[in-house]
User: What shape does this take?
Amino acid sequence: MTKHESQPPSTRERSSGHQSLRVLVVDDEEHLQELLRTELSDRGHDVTVCASGRAALKVLETSTFDAAILDLKMPGMSGIELLQHIKHAQPDVEAVIQTGFATQETAIEALRLGAFDYITKPCKMAEIEAILGRIAEKRELTNKTLALQSRVEAAEGHAVLVGRSPAMQAVHRLIATVAPTDSAVLILGETGTGKELVARTIFEQSHRAGTTFVPVNCGALSENLVESELFGHRKHSFTGAERDHKGLFEVANGGTLFLDELGELKPNIQVKLLRFLESGEIRRVGDNEPIHTDVRVLCATNRDLWAAVQRDEFREDLYYRVNTFEIRLPPLRERRSDIAELALNLLARAARRPVENVQTLFGRGVAEALCNYDWPGNVRELANAMEYAWIVSGGQALLPEHLPVHIRNGRAPAILSFPGRIAAQAAQPPAPVEAQPAATASGGSLAEMEMSHIFRILEKHKGHKQSAAQELGISLKTLYNKLNKYEEEHRAAG
Assistant: This one.
């Protein structure tokens, strides 16, 4: 093993670009103990050194670690035996086996028992530093995922696929059939019908449940960076690529990747997706070597993909690959018997209460009003309506007057219909001030300009009112009140 070239410890720590780790080093050679203690500490890591497996077990009783560097050949207890004890005591510790007696068999055995990596002596500090960097990156991604899941569940509760109508019973049967397999699934349905929830349900009923579920909105990915986001890139492969980047296919390794709005992928990305589905291999941008990943791919779209194939906008061979198994999700208007139960569940999420605690909050006439509306925005629109009603009711029992006006009237207003009508409204900017007559400086025109701006922000956030309200700097209740007032004035005017 060789020392890092001479440079100040603070510089080395900054150049690594990774978080500090708690590292356990177990090696019976004193000079390697001291070298690893000094070099890893200089790089900002918290290092504990043990001279034997028995000593390490004592330390593990009172201390926790992020990573462990284990010598394979030690008196009393081998590195493989110690690895097994560590994985039993602290399963999240990422272990690295090092030895001067490298064989393919020992490498395979170490990896089978859960080792993160395997290196041979003599090794350079740069090798160990690179491995610890990958461990830090993995832990950071894991922590972010867990934090996000916690925030979502705290805010919304655990979402479940609700519906007892014949149409939804058919969907449940299809999910139960395909979930235990590793087949690609294409989920079809209008905007807001709950396609991601179907994908999550497939994941949760599969043998991959408990691993990683990575949802990706293909339509929201930057056109210039979509390849890097999905497949990763090597350092310096393009301007701004300051370090290696792991793509979402690698992040989802061992788990499930959900590609929503699949029809938005450009032809060059379609080719790379097809290659993965055929071979299980991806290539990072700037890398000639393929990387094998074990990922199940679920896809969804609200577009007619076959029509896109006919227009040469979507590859026919990819269409057949992603469409191994197809699930069509019915719009809400075709399963009206599910609306009341679904609304109750969505109200519970808005109120952050268990479903059983909100069952008495539906006043007379509410369920009937909900069932008489066609829900062009499907479940997403119903969720917004329940959140609106909960805010307006002040947390009390819901009455029909707490529902948005257009739902009480049983027909969607032109400006609020989904999908696309907000887009049409927002796409028309207000006339330039200099082109307007002087009279347009009235309060009425200011209100129109305000609403035009609101519609543009709503379109930017694809109708998600909470996000739009945050960008506008107003409360969600204020946004709903403005939309409701505009709607009532619009009806009164015409």
In short: Confidence is low (pLDDT under 50) at residues 2-17, 415-444.
